[in-house]
């Protein structure tokens, strides 16, 4: 299927709606989305425009339709099936210098008019381009936090990705993009200014600017420094690694957690579980890296879990789940704390 073949009926069928119903709802910004609100995501405050619960699966089907029929550009690695920060970093392994830029306020900076014209340039009909713009930019800017947000941003960047990669290839440079982060690896530092000029020129076509603070901090990573792309170290040509500070943090966390696990008590198990989940997240990241000190950390993790299990067994508790797990409807550590306190009270009463 090519872009010009897509019809409103195709989109309506994918979303399991009639064409008339889809067009009617698309004209109402609040029909599919909640009102935009500011939320703290990590260290930043972002404007989140969430899909209403009723329509999440509907938009997920639309998301899958575009992933299936219109694969993202080879340079795009953010929220693309089969790709990740590690696949992006793998393109730059062992390269001498890295140039990185992040788009400033990417999602709210992508406006309806520019998005519409990019869809037209990709070959979509005016009717389909208008409908998709209403579905994905309900309040005049690209909705952040919805199931189609990354499909939309990858479509928006598609033509520019092709143009940037073509121009940079003439310099022997490699280019990847992870959502709103653009990374280029080069073998000669003399090309740095030209690379930046190419990136700035093409972002200007989209009406976007780069975050200058990040450009100052991590925009130039030359040979002799730790070179990191999307949280993945690319110094070694043998494979991907996690940054050194992440490895140090994981090692220190495991050591402190082991010490706490050996003296675990009902009032400490919840805080230990939170740290154990953090450690598991770091271990999951390491599992994706080609080179990582997994053996030493895995041994410490086994010792941590064994210490907690032995402490629970001494009071007759056998958890149904891993002791640190937590979900929307359960918190295993809190349940274990309450049960442990009851068991201890019974044992003290019996004594």
Count of domains:
2
- CATH homologous superfamily designation of the largest domain: Reverse transcriptase/Diguanylate cyclase domain
The succession of helices and strands, N to C, reads HHHEEHHEHHHHEEHHEEEHHHH
Helix content: 40-55%
Mean pLDDT: 93
Task: Record keyword descriptors for this entry.
alpha+beta; 15 helices; 8 strands; Alpha-Beta Plaits; 2 domains; flat; 351 residues
Q: What does this 3D model show about the protein?
A:
- With 351 residues, this protein is of the alpha+beta class.
- The chain has two domains: 231 residues, 2-Layer Sandwich (Alpha-Beta Plaits), CATH 3.30.70; 107 residues.
- The protein contains 15 helices and eight strands.
- Strands 4-5-3-6 form a four-stranded antiparallel β-sheet. The chain has a two-stranded antiparallel ribbon with strand order 1-2. The chain has a two-stranded antiparallel sheet with strand order 7-8.
- Strand 4 and strand 5 form a beta hairpin.
- It is flat.
- The N and C termini lie far apart (76 Å).
Topology of helices and strands:
Layout: H1 8-14, H2 19-26, H3 29-32, E1 37-41, E2 44-48, H4 56-69, H5 85-90, E3 97-102, H6 106-109, H7 112-122, H8 126-136, H9 149-169, E4 174-178, E5 181-186, H10 192-205, H11 212-218, E6 220-221, E7 228-229, E8 232-233, H12 244-261, H13 269-288, H14 294-313, H15 332-350
Antiparallel strand pairs: 1-2, 3-5, 3-6, 4-5, 7-8
Helix pairs in contact: 7-8, 7-9, 9-10, 12-13, 12-14, 13-14
């Amino acid at each position: 299927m090519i872009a010009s073949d897509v019809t409103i009926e195709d989109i309506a069928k994918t979303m399991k709606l009639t064409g008339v119903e889809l067009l009617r709802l698309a004209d109402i910004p609040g029909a599919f989305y909640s009102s935009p609100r500011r939320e703290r995501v990590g260290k930043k405050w972002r404007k989140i425009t969430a899909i209403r619960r009723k329509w999440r699966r509907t938009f997920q089907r639309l998301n899958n339709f575009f992933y299936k029929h219109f694969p993202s550009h080879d340079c795009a690695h953010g929220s693309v099936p089969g790709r990740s920060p590690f696949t992006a970093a793998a393109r730059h392994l062992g390269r001498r210098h890295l140039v990185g830029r992040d788009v400033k306020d990417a999602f709210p900076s992508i406006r309806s008019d520019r998005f519409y014209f990019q869809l037209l340039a990709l070959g979509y009909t005016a009717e389909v381009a208008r409908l998709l713009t209403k579905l994905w930019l309900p309040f005049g800017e690209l909705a952040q936090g919805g199931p189609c947000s990354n499909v939309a941003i990858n479509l928006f960047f598609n033509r520019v990705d092709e143009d940037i990669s073509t121009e940079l290839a003439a310099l022997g440079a490699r280019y990847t993009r992870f959502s709103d982060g653009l990374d280029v690896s080069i073998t000669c530092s003399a090309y740095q200014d030209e690379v930046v000029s190419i990136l700035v020129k093409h972002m200007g076509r989209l009406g976007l600017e780069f975050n200058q603070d990040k450009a100052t901090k991590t925009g130039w990573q030359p040979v002799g420094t730790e070179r990191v792309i999307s949280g993945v170290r690319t110094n070694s040509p043998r494979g991907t690694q996690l940054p050194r500070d992440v490895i140090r943090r994981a090692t220190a966390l495991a050591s402190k957690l082991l010490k706490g696990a050996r003296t675990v008590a009902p009032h400490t198990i919840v805080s230990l579980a939170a740290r154990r989940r953090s450690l598991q997240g770091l271990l999951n990241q390491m599992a994706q890296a080609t080179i990582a000190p997994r053996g030493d950390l895995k041994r410490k993790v086994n010792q941590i879990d064994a210490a907690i299990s032995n402490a629970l067994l001494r009071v007759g508790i056998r958890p149904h789940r891993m002791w640190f797990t937590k979900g929307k409807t359960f918190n295993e550590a809190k349940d274990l704390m309450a049960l442990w306190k009851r068991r201890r009270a019974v044992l003290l009463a019996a004594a």
